[in-house]
Amino acid sequence: xxxxxxxxxxxxxxxxxxxxxxxxxxxxxxxxxxxxxxxxxxxxxxxxxxxxxxxxxxxxxxxxxxxxxxxxxxxxxxxxxxxxxxxxxxxxxxxxxxxxxxxxxxxxxxxxxxxxxxxxxxxxxxxxxxxxxxxxxxxxxxxxxxxxxxxxxxxxxxxxxxxxxxxxxxxxxxxxxxxxxxxxxxxxxxxxxxxxxxxxxxxxxxxxxxxxxxxxxxxxxxxxxxxxxxxxxxxxxxxxxxxxxx
Length: 246
Ligand SMILES: [Zn+2]
Description:
The mean pLDDT is 91. This protein starts with a helix and ends with a helix. It is rod-shaped and about 130 Å long. The protein is 77% helix and 5% strand. It has helices at 3-84, 88-162, 165-169, 174-184, 208-215, 232-235, 239-242, and strands at 191-195, 198-199, 220-221, 228-230. A four-stranded mixed β-sheet has the order 2-1-4-3, sandwiched between helices. It is mostly helical. 11% of the residues are buried. Zinc ion is lined by residues 199, 201-202, 204, 222, 224-225, 227.
């Protein structure tokens, strides 16, 4: 085997690691974008919830006011009756009813006041949240737009580089490519050098016969981790020095 194909192979691996790094950057940016999007939606939902609370409380106020009007009308009617009643028993009974209505009015008024307080507090909270959102949501939205733009740039870069990949494979022997392609989806370093008689990927000892083959420029599969093994001196190249670490 010539050193030339191996150089081409190293070149392809280096190239792929650049692609992988870009891919990782894209995925990381996508996570950030999703998080910012979630924040935006959470804040919008929070504001909507408070607004709904205000609406609900106002409905309760309306209902309470209606009840008070009704109690007021009932009380007035009873009082009118009271003026016309002559016998003591009926008078006493009506008077009791009037007192009962007065008490109910008093209680209703207390409820109404409580509701009004709640409306006021909740409305203030809504205004506070809106105020906060007007500043912070703008920042979050800007950050989100920036990350989306970054993803687009990275993706364009990735696509442009990936376009050149077939040319990079041209001088790499098919058998190496096959093994490499099947490993590369699973591990970051599918091709590693032999070091002091061991695989530098998994530190398994390589048998003497294979060491000899490696020295004769063979590319072997590690029997322990299935990474592709090479002998740096024999190949006249060391991947470790050339590869851009992600
Ligand atoms: Zn190994």
